[in-house]
Amino acid sequence: MTSSKESLSKSDSRPVIAISGKGGTGKTVISTIIIKHLKKKDVKILAIDADPATSLPPALGVNIRKTIGDVREKLVLGPGRTPAPDLPVDLMLEYQIRDILAEIPKISILAIGRPEGPGCYCLVNDILRHSIEKFSSLYDVTIIDCEAGLEHLSRRTTRSVNTMIIVTDATQRGINTARLIKELAESLEINFDRICVILNRATQEQAKTFFESASKYGIDLAGIVPEDENITEYDLNGKPLIDLPDDSPAVIAVGEILGKLEILV
Ligand SMILES: Nc1ncnc2c1ncn2[C@@H]1O[C@H](COP(=O)(O)OP(=O)(O)OP(=O)(O)O)[C@@H](O)[C@H]1O
Ligand SMILES: [Mg+2]
Hints:
The chain is α/β, with parallel strands linked by helices. The chain has a single domain (2-260), classed as Rossmann fold (3-Layer(aba) Sandwich). 42% of the residues lie in helices and 17% in strands. It has 11 helices and 8 strands. It has an 8-stranded mixed β-sheet, with helices on both faces. Helix 2 crosses helix 11 (249-260) and helix 4 packs across helix 6. The longest helix has 16 residues, at 172-187. Magnesium ion binds next to helix 2.
């Protein structure tokens, strides 16, 4: 496993890749296709759904029984109600996170979910941040499908990420979101090794115009993913996107991007 692990990244640290961007741009689609490619390698993958809407597990063809939202409920009930009341809190948390991981071959899936009732999200986000930091070192590669927007930065849930991929459409609002993510990360001193954009559902012509604008803000374009009819058909019929054909245009495009980023060599 070591050799394939080394080929995943030039960095010494294990790849922790977050996929962010504005709402509905294709973060979950791109996260799933990245995982589909990584699954072909001899690596252990941690897939984290950091969006309370919990869209990544069905895209991976997985049913999630429990989420970090459920772990929070147990914690707020107090130590007397937890399964191992004598354990220190970080060990108890680790135990409970392991308990909610959904497992399929090569992939462990962790979903943030949402707290039941009117609970605050702070504790859920603290547990998520702790889980990313603790568990990513146990896997060869971690993929995080972020909630839309910028809050994962201000909550610092993505502070241990080394590659930030921003998915955008070819609109000025998409460029603005990418610019804001980059600037906010800098102002919060979150130092990603790499931050880049995937332009989704775009043509080469649109990419040219987009790139002229984006380069003004120092945003790197990792690549373009075209409109893919198979994605439309799979989503329409509720089929897991991880089962998309290998020769589907979006799958090929994401494979090329991973090669360019040297995430899959
Ligand atoms: N390359 C593509 N070709 C065709 N359809 C696509 C493509 N990318 C995304 N879609 C469609 O766009 C919609 C949004 O995609 P997705 O759910 O991945 O976005 P998201 O950024 O994760 O959204 P959210 O912000 O709600 O989490 C889905 O219906 C998906 O089928
Ligand atoms: Mg999503």
